Amino acid sequence: MSDSRPLEHHVSRAPFAPEDDHVLTADQERLYAASQWTMMWWRFRRHRLAVASGAVLLAMYLGILVSEPLAPYNLHSRNVDFIHAPPQTVHLFHDGVFVGPFVYGLDYRLNMTSLKREYTPDPTKVQPLRFLCRGDPYVFWGLIPMDRHLVCPAEGGTLFLLGTDRLGRDMLSRLIYGARISLTVGLLGIAISFVLGLTLGGISGYFGGWIDNVIQRLIEIMRSLPELPLWMALSAAVPINWDPVAVYFCITVILGLLDWPGLARAVRSKLLALKEEDYCTAAEMMGAKPSRVIGHHLLPNFMSHLIASLTLSVPTMILGETALSFLGLGLRPPVTSWGVLLSEAQNIEAVVLYPWLMTPVASVIVTVLAFNFLGDGLRDAADPYHHH
User: Fold this and answer.
1) Looking at residues 220-240, what average pLDDT do you find?
2) How many C-alpha atoms does 50 have within 13 Å on its Cβ side?
3) Domain ranges of the chain
């Protein structure tokens, strides 16, 4: 190395000013000033699948507010000429000409060899859909008699987007009405299990000692009982002659009463960890009552976790109701839920011949998956130590 050129200098020659260090960029400032909920929201937004699931669920829950106008037919409307009719497809073009959304009318004949009802679309019967139209009368929310629908079949035509059942009732309309029961059964059940889980878990974790022991043994007994047989036994005890609404509330209470132990366990373990923290001891020394310490200092600290675990237990409730109604122990007709609709598809022949009777399965699967993805997203967002 006889080269005498000076080595290149890689250090910045700009003047060094230590006081510039304290100037935060706008982004940093936003980050430091953000509340816990804001940061949760930012983290949640990055979870695409969870955001999409949230949107799907929001649409479904908004839909149940207006089930009656959304459904093309009334829940109990029977199209006697179209029993087990297959789903009709919506077309836009007829013979290459744009007509707008329409369906082809169905021709019916009974196959005398297989005794199967056969429906064929008749290309001469073009039945344009009507929108924001008058159709089957219904009583909105059981209060206001109305007859407006978002979409109706053509005058004298039919519109069975998901086919019809054994009484000629439109499956899509029944699915939309059933969503109201199936989606709310979970929320009411959750409310009950939430209150029980928070209260018992909170008492158990905060006071410890013999109280904790009693509650933990109770939880162990509850968790060692097999879930489905227990649900079945309890729902079989609901008197048959009760009003459908009473049965509905009874089923939600049963689902709620059996679902709290998991939540109580989570609350207890969190409280045991948090009550040793300094701020908690300080509050006690200042004379705060246990209810205040739990409510004001401890619960807000893992509220986000609770929200996530709640989201994950809604599908359990929905599946519970579906299973019970499917077995004929939950809700019974005339109340319509997805489980009730599926119980009509129990007959294997019906499923082979008329597969569209199984469509409620799809809606149950979509709902349960959406809740699970949303719960995962919330759980990740709620965990301050979780970094993507």
Assistant:
1) 80
2) 20
3) 88-159, 173-382
Region 340-368: mean pLDDT is 82
Q: What is the DSSP letter of 76?
A: T
Rounded to whole angstroms, the Cα distance separating 235 from 103 reads: 43
In sequence order, the β-bridge partners of residue 151 are 131
Alpha carbon 103 to its chain centroid, in Å, reads: 32
Long-range contacts of residues 235-243, Cβ cutoff 8 Å, at least 24 apart: 235/324, 235/329, 235/330, 236/329
Q: How confident is the model at residue 388 (pLDDT cuts 50, 70, 90)?
A: very low
The residue among 111, 128, 112 whose CA lies nearest residue 120 is: 111
Torsion, CA 57, CA 62, CA 63, CA 68, rounded to 10 = 160
| Spatial distance between the Cα atoms of 132 and 147, rounded to a whole number of angstroms | 10
2 pLDDT more than 70: no
> In this structure, what token pair is assigned to residue 25?
């960029």
Pick the CATH number of 173-382 from 1.10.3720.10, 3.40.190.10, 3.40.50.300, 1.10.472.80: 1.10.3720.10
